[in-house]
## 1
Amino acid sequence: MPEKKLHPLVEYELGWLGDDDPAQVMAATPQKLRELIEGVDDDSLRRRPAADSWSAIELLGHFADIELIHAERFRRILAEDKPRLVPFDPDAWNATLGHSKRSPVEHLALFEALRRSNLDVWRRASLADRAREYIHGERGAESYELLFKMCAGHDRLHMAQIQEALRPRASASL
Ligand code: NI
């Protein structure tokens, strides 16, 4: 069956997931995030690798934001008839909610509670539920299953960014 051409962002995030089970990937993420930041000092957590790249702490805040957005989106897709998703501006949330000033414990507590709940909603959903659609402003109709898989790929791409943000750097003066 010919497949609909995927939007580049969708293709990119699904590429990070590959053929892996999205629920398994997403269930493992909280522990992986804790391991990534274990023993990391506060300066390193809050240092941006470049002026326009988020620090590890900002990325942890982003994990919580995205999980909150998905908590709402997943539920609306199940409860409403082809809901139109409300756009979300991650940079604006990061800047105005002060993610860089919070602790990793705060970000992780919110993320983990929402992740547990979002996984529970997914596991209880039937195949027909998972095929339910929403309308994305730019990309048109997509399924709950596609959005869920994108979320799993999104986990991996941002975990790689956290690793990158925490990579020791040569001093600028050398
Ligand atoms: Ni993101």
Note: The domain at 8-166 is CATH 1.20.120.450 (Four Helix Bundle (Hemerythrin (Met), subunit A)).
## 2
Amino acid sequence: MAQGAVEYAKELGCANPQIVLHLDHGDSFELCKDCIDNGFSSVMIDGSALPYEDNIALTKKVVEYAHAHDVTVEAELGVLAGVEDEVQAEESHYTKPEEVIDFATRTGCDSLAISIGTSHGAYKFKPEQCTRDPKTGKLVPPPLAFDVLHAIEEKLPGFPIVLHGSSSVPQDEVDTINAHGGKLPDAVGIPEEQLREASKSAVCKINIDSDSRLAMTAAIRKYFDEHPEHFDPRQYLKPARENMQKMYEHKIVDVLGSNNKL
Ligand SMILES: [Zn+2]
């Protein structure tokens, strides 16, 4: 399937497309196997909610199958708070640096998602976890646990680290949504400066999803407010797509620094 996307991109005139088809938060060996059998180029097996030894056993099983099919595996150690699709947990538990060598060695995983204070969704922190900016009245979230990240880097020099739940919940998009009939009080994310700092470390992949949902919803709400007579998705999805594209271009260039890099 990934190969098909590459061929199609070539047909469209892209000379050397680099395309990955990745399963996010696979929760069973069967699901990962299904994806591998159907041409995914990488899978994530998320055993982070399991007891440590069970997480290792499940991840190892996926790695053995995946590597035999030339597919890479992202694993997860430590628990993120928040809700994303089927993934949810009340509280986060930071990854324990003293476990990462044992985990990476015994599972053979290719990259490791860790928990250092990011979380899924548009409400990453409760107001009582934050301070409030006296000027804007907006919540200021607690900083990421860079000490944990650096301790992990020291244990596994050069090993690819992944951050999930890393949307910044842009307040201009939240304000647009709220100004056009939405209701997202106190939605707050990870400040982009902290992601910029993390992306200079062993962190090689930062997952950002809620921000695109916000960008799309903000554009659609604004459009409907300004064009109440319109009902054709081809009309209102155009500014929605454009707003998402603008957001992702900004992330790639200004936040992740990953433009023109392989
Ligand atoms: Zn995730």
Note: The chain has a mean pLDDT of 92.
